[in-house]
Amino acid sequence: MNTKESERRQMAPVAATPQAGGLKDSPAVERALGRSKIYLLLSWSLLYPEDDEFLDYLQSGEFVEDGRSAIESLRGALDGIGGERAKQKLAALSKHLDQIERWVSSECVNWQLADLQAEHRRVFSNVITLDCPPYETLFGNDHVFGQAHVMGDIAGFYRAFGVELSRDVHERMDHLSVELEFMHFLAYKESYARCHDGADKTQIVVDAQKKFVKDHIGRWVPLFSRMLAKKADTGFFKDMADFSSDWVDLDAAYLGVNPQPYSETEYRPATFNAPEGQTYECGAQDQGSELSMLLSEVGAQSFLDKEKEKDDSGPVGTA
User: Fold this and answer.
1) Which of 309, 239, 259, 198 is nearest to 46 (CA)?
2) Which domains does the chain have, with CATH numbers?
3) What is the 3-state secondary structure (H, E, C) of 260-275?
4) What is the mean pLDDT of residues 77-94?
5) pTM, whole model, 2 decimals?
6) Which residues of 11-89 form beta strands (DSSP E)?
C-alpha cells in the first residue's frame, strides 16, 4: 500500500465493470467502484509529488475527468441511498472539481514539478506542522499512549486485510493519504467480492469500511479539512480540502454511520521532547524515526511485532 503513483494508476478501477447479466446488484458494484476511485484521487492529491506523474495527471485534465466520471457513476448508482444529504454533497463535489479545473487552466498549466513541490511544502511544510498535520494520531490524543492505541488499531485494519506500507514511499501508517488509499482498496475489494465471492466475504469488507470511516476517517478528516482549507487559503489544496470534507460526509451518509468528529477544542496533539540535536521530519522525507520512537516509548512496537508473528492466516477474501 502507498505505492508509487505509476503503480496506483494501473490499479485505478476505471475499467473494471460487471459482466452483463452476471449480477443481480450491479448498481452496488458501480457504487463500490465509484467510491474506490474517489478515495484513490484523494490519496494521490495529498502525497508529496516526487516526480512529474501527478503534475501531468493534473495538467492533462485526467484528474478532473476521472473525478467527474466517478461522481456521475455514483449519481446514478446511489438511487436515493444517503437521502437529500447525499444529493447535495454530490453537487458540491462537482463544483469543487469545476474549481480545480479552472485552477489548472489558469495557473497550474504553466507549472513545473518544482512549483507543485513548493506549493506542497508551503501548505504541509517539511516537518510536522500543527497548522494542518495529515496524521490521525495528532488529533484527539493528548498523550503518547492514546496515540499508540490509535496507531495499533489502524495497524490491525491493515494487517487483517494483508496490506502493508510500501518501502518506496516513506510515510506513517496514520498519514491521511495512506488511510484514504486503504479505503480505496476496501471499496475496490468490495466490488470484486460482489462479482466473485459470496455474501459473507462481501459483508466482511463492507463492515470494515463502515468501522474505518466511523472510528478513523470520519472522526479526524472533517477538522483536518477545515485546518487545511485555512492554511492553504487558495489553490489546489484549498479545493481538495473542501472536496475531502464533503466526500467524507457523503460517504458516511452512504455507509449509514455517524462518526463523532473532533472539534477545534479537542485538537490536542501529544508532544514529547526530542533527544538533543535531533529533529523529526515527515512527508516524503519521513524515514519513520518519529514513529519508531513513539512506538518504542510505549511498548507498542513489540506488541505489533508479536501480532505480526501470530498473523499466519493471510488476507481476508481473494480480491
Assistant:
1) 239
2) 20-310 (1.10.3480.10)
3) CCCCHHHCCCCCCCCC
4) 81
5) 0.78
6) none
